[in-house]
Specification:
Length: about 240
């Protein structure tokens, strides 16, 4: 069952109608959705389907399952339902996700090391990278560079490239675009113009100023040059 993922083309959609394709216990599969499912370090959305709480959104064997609160009256297959996002949460996740790209871009530009992993919750995130030596004042410098990049107000553009084109793109190579399976014909590219370009399925704000102010909360040494940086985003 293929669900059209509306957030891939428009992350600012807050409501939509959808047709129920399948009902599995307390979860529904829809023909299209605005709900982001947990993936790529970004947690799932919350919100309402026909006024009932969506408690989790998860991809299981290729199907996007929207779990409704226990005791919800489940809609019938074929019914049209109305979906509404918890926009405050989603927008915070979009700001946080975008801040992580800015962080990636800054760390790459300044120290030429790639980010190896990360995770986020609304307005807090961590990112991992490898750096054998951490220079004096590193956290302060990262914070300064990130906030300068945000203030520069880089636009963020989403495009879809044929896989053949994406795998030879210099900027995408460093983010390991070649690891995306051959079966994927089209690759979604998120470009913070002039700063960071990645193959990415997440939701982002439209330009960097919308992120807000980023604070580096903590630097951790996880051993053998493995560093973890924790950030928070100030309202
Ligand atoms: Zn992203």
């Amino acid at each position: 069952m293929t669900t059209e993922l509306l957030f891939l083309r428009d992350a600012y959609l807050q409501e939509c109608d959808a047709v129920v394709q399948e009902v599995r216990e307390n979860a529904v599969i829809l023909d299209q959705t605005i709900f982001y499912y947990t993936s790529g370090g970004q947690p799932h959305d919350l919100g309402l389907i026909n006024g009932q709480l969506v408690t989790e959104v998860r991809k299981v064997d290729g199907d996007v399952l929207h779990f409704l609160v226990e005791g919800a009256s489940m809609p019938a297959v074929g019914a049209t339902v109305h979906c509404v996002l918890d926009w405050e949460r989603r927008h915070r996740l979009m700001r946080t996700h975008t801040a992580m790209h800015v962080l990636c871009g800054v760390i790459w530009n300044e120290w030429k090391v790639p980010v190896t992993g990360g995770n986020m919750e609304p307005l807090v995130a961590r990112m991992d990278f490898e750096l054998p030596e951490v220079p004096e004042g590193f956290a302060e410098k990262v914070e300064k560079l990130v906030n300068e990049a945000i203030a520069h107000n880089h636009p963020i553009e989403v495009s879809f490239l044929p896989r053949d084109t994406a795998v030879v793109d210099e900027d995408l190579i460093r983010t390991k675009v070649s690891l995306i399976p051959d079966s994927v014909p089209e690759i979604r590219v998120v470009d913070i113009v002039g700063l960071d370009k990645q193959a990415d399925g997440g939701t982002h704000v439209a330009s960097t100023q919308e992120v807000g102010v980023v604070r580096v909360v903590k630097m951790e040494n996880k051993g053998k040059g493995f560093r973890r940086i924790r950030v928070s985003i100030v309202e």
